[in-house]
Protein 1
Amino acid sequence: MIPPPAVSTIHAALDRNGLVKRRKRRRYEACGTPLVAAHAPNGLWCADYKGEFLLGNRQYCYPLTITDYRSRYLLACEGLESTKSKFAFSVFERAFRDFGLPGAIRTDNGVPFAAPWAMFGLSRLAVWWLRLGIRLQRIKPGKPQQNGRHERMHLTLKNETTKPAAFNFLQQQERFEDFIRVYNQERPHQALGGLYPAEIYTPSARPYVPPCDPEYPFHDRTVRITRCGRICVGSRKINLSTSLAEQLVGIREVDDQVWQVSFLEYELGYFDRDQDRVEPGPNPFAPDTVLTMCPE
């Protein structure tokens, strides 16, 4: 008896003859997350890029800034060559080592904080934050006022450090460092009762420690996602997300031949015996109602 060909072989033959209907890739639609104010330092940090500008040597500079929500303390202002995640990783890791971990980080929905094509907009940077126990707060698209105090700092930063811009990155970073010192230690803030941010801010009690691998004791199995973002179960390769590459996820059967995929405490979606991709479940980060203004 001649054994039947593998499913992948049949699929490839049908595909070559134009008999496979491909699904349109669904783009994640950003909707923001619940926004919760913080009344103590390090309860919430805010982060964003000020906006690129040309240096005197015709190179673009992308300043990445991080502030503490409660004290307005400027934790970092780093001029970067681009918004690629590898540069952002280094800035945040340095901030975590210097100041400890915040309870949450508020950003917009742009790269590298979010990934438009990924499941629930999770970028590799956001996945790293979740691994560190940091909650995600994302403002609603087109609502920069939800990160208003951070945007106000950007206006001051722009006026005092980029008009005109320095010649190169080194000289521009010197301006940023001077601005950090003055902003934190020499400029009283009316919203702080005339105090300086440095008089209010204290480092976090949560030190930065590289996260351990998560465990899933209530799942059927634990699987490490491949570098290309797939779950390999036996001979099957189920597409998930490259943002979760090399992360551990939990899998459990919730119905006959239907499996649920979880990352940390978040339920991501489902796949069955026929699908080779994880279909997203309800967005675990979506709010019932996102406030228009930044909560105080």
Note: Helices lie at 7-16, 85-99, 124-131, 148-161, 169-185, 197-200.
Protein 2
Amino acid sequence: MKTLLLQTGTVPAALLCCLLCALCWGSWANTQKQAAVRNCSFELFYVDFVVGFSLSILLASLLPGTSSSRFFTALFYDLMHPHWNSIGYVMLSGLVWSLGNLLLIAATTVAGMAVSMSVGLSLSWSGAIALQYLLYPHQVSDPPWLLASVLFVLLALGLAAKAYQLQISSKAGKVGLGISLSLLAGIVILFFYGLTWRAVSPSYFSGAGGSMTPHSALFFFACGALAGAPLFCSFAIRYPLMGRPKQWKSYFTTPFRLHLIGWSGGIIWAIGAVGCFYGLTYAPPLLAFVLCNALAPLIAMVWGLHRWKEFKGSPRPALRLMIWVFILLVAAPVCMMMAGDTL
């Protein structure tokens, strides 16, 4: 019983949804920047972020087509005929994503949006495809292009690290922390893709290996993310990267406006997730994946460099390096598209 996230199951509509996803996933970190400007710690911001994301995913699942009954049919069908492997994979995917995204937000707090997102997100999407190739090499028709794409990403990561070092040359002690958090976030998040792929039925995602509908997968993904957030946030609150340890009661004394900013960030990410699922359902899988994920760090770089002026006052070589990072991160997905037409 195939349910649709939108009524029009066409490739152009799917590609537009992929672009919407890239815009959302490249822009949501603006809310974290806004919260940081108002002295809200990233740990407390992330609590609201996950709440906004989870509630939005539930709402999106309740609104397919013209009636919510389709969602209940799909969800209840998966519950009445549970494939525990698929449910376990997608909930573990949400758990992994929750940890990776917390690390990414921490990296953004330390290193800024342009550096953390270009490093973390680029490593995650390129690493996910490279890992998929190692597991299923027959899916790549031209491996040298895949190798070129990965090399472009790795070179971009190195240049971003160098640019960040030049940016804060007077505070060299923090260079390792910002880049390390970005890399760790990317490594953790890259496993979220494969776990989700193993949960959804191939009737929806070409090449997938699970049995769930997209609606049910989104629902259980949100459950996994929501389940992991209190544990990860509690650890981050008790052992903060910067400043003194906090307590949960500080969350309840946070001004409503700051809660609203965090919820907004989660809503933006959730909109992108729905667009990604729809795009992967109807567009060629590799094209959809690259549009959703490879454009996001480029958009984030534009926000960080233009909107937040993160490299203002930095040595000119640092800005030139970031321009080269941008160029390499444009070339990488082009090479990836040349490597093969399936994931």
Note: The mean pLDDT is 87.
Protein 3
Amino acid sequence: MSLKKFSRDLDAFFSFKATPVRSTGARRGTLFLFSAGVVVLCLGAILFFTGGTSAGDSALIPACSIFSNEGEYLSHIRENVEFEGMRLDIITMRRGDNFWKVARKYGVDIDTLIGANPWWGNLLAHVEQEIVVPSRKGALHFVAGLDELDRLAADHKTSREDILVQRLPFFRKHFPRLFDDGKPIAVFLKDARPTAAHMTAELARQFTVREMFRSPLGGRFSSFFGNRVHPIFHRWKFHDGLDIAARYGTPVGAPCEGRVIAAGWMGGYGKAVVISHPKGYKTLCGHLSRINVREGQYVPAGKIIGRVGSTGFSTGPHLHFSLWKDGRPIDPMKVLW
């Protein structure tokens, strides 16, 4: 509809002359219908000229730029955000708790907690700390308008149906330009991971490194990076990696793309594979029962490089996983979480 035609229709409507009637009831009925028509036409005009928000008018909004502090963020979640089909619980950390323990208890993962708690500067929990815990895996975001959902789905390579939108008042949902209360809209992307752009700078640096790597296998962490009593020599000794207990023969994948720089017997590590990765990183997977790659071979992330065993100085089937950055050993938990 053109603006000129709309104006002609509007003029025609207001130039309408009703046939005089003597009945008071009929006159009232005509006045009511006329008034209702004016209201409907005016609403139509407003909707015609304002329309919905155009694509690109709104954007994903980092929570840290919306709320002045974590307390204000938590209050907003409590008072304004509710989803259909999932919960956002706010819990208080107690002595002995950590974020991984909470994630397991609620059936989610550490990524989900990171996405729902944008003020975290690190992954060290403290007593009486309040955190947001979604009831399912995914990423919590905020948008300025519902027209942003298609772009959000494309950015995260997911479908529109996998984005949950918080419950909204009827008019805010269907007539956003007329009834915009200025509050951001919470959306939840099912099974998505958070992005560094929506974290504190400190945590984003750690997360960016983590995105390079993947766990070489699933299993139980049986011994961590740092000083410990050696299980064979029974003396205090530095452990330069992470032990992941798994069944004998479990496939071991490359933790990141790279080139194999050593593959074979390596003393206490037994059968092992060393891979050089981008940005100065290097990994070792030891105590293997079988090696599936050769020196000089390029391997993509996830490629099977061997099988879990108990070769070398080992008390049972597990994977020893070491990580170096520019020649210095670092804690693998910094990238595996």
Note: The two ends are 57 Å apart (CA to CA).
Protein 4
Amino acid sequence: MPSSTTPPPAPGASEPISLRETARRLGVHYMTAYRYVRTGRLPARQVGQEWLIDPADLARLREPAAAEPGRRARRDRVPILIDRMTAGDEAGAWRVIDEALTGGQDATGVYLDLLVPALRGVGEAWAAGSVSVAGEHRASAIAQRIIGRLGPRFARRGRKRGTVVLGGPAGEQHSLPGALISDLLRGRGFDVIDLGANTPAGSFAETAGQAGQLVAVIIGVTAPGLDDSVRAAVAALRAAAVSAPVLAGGAAVTSTEHARALGADAWTGPDGRAALATVDRLAGPRAATRTTAQAAQSATQSAAQSAARAGGDRPSATDAVSGPA
């Protein structure tokens, strides 16, 4: 336990920083940093009413976070998170998330290995009748707030790798999967335009046509029976001459063959990591496409694309995506 009797730093040591500055550097709430101190996880000394931290101790605390992105969470946290979310216990659910973060888990891993499995578990429990409709709604509401709190951790400075437009087609009622993948893509350096659930086909086309440096359009489907809605969205994108690859994915799209049958260029893959890898491949040096307005400036290119479409030999993004990631 830290104490006010902890000796001051030796001459020549780094200047100590305040607890508030420590929280800022860690990207956590002030009270979270304070809890690190009170539990002994972060050495500190108290001067009057203020806690002071040696930057070297802060660096040691942060070392586990330098592990491989997407480092997996402890699986025993998933059932605890499901229990807290379905009970409507937001504070308890966040404690599970915070423990994963303080234990060295990064935000990508928290999403892919903790929150996504928890949401899947809630859905399975609801289908089995062990969680009520009310419990499912409580869990979804808490998941939205968790995403809101973790979202800023995915912000990246510097030049962007391109833009990804994504959304659920008409009839799709779930927006959480799109919100999750949007943050994950932002963490990879992409600009993301998330259209949310139940997006009209024309909105996909309008948004993609106006996007700069468009890398891909992702149509995500979680519920069966929406194949026609996906086909309508793809058709609208084709009619608007959007030349970026169109990807179909989500729990209701089960294979490359299924995605292509819906008119998409490729499947996102079976899970979030596969979807990220697919977009990463498309964002190679020659993969990012120009907007429709820019493409229209080149009459030769536009004519070639139109002729290819008319002849049924439209260039396919599957050349850049070799099957499920």
Note: Residues 1-7, 64-72, 286-325 have pLDDT under 50 and may be disordered.
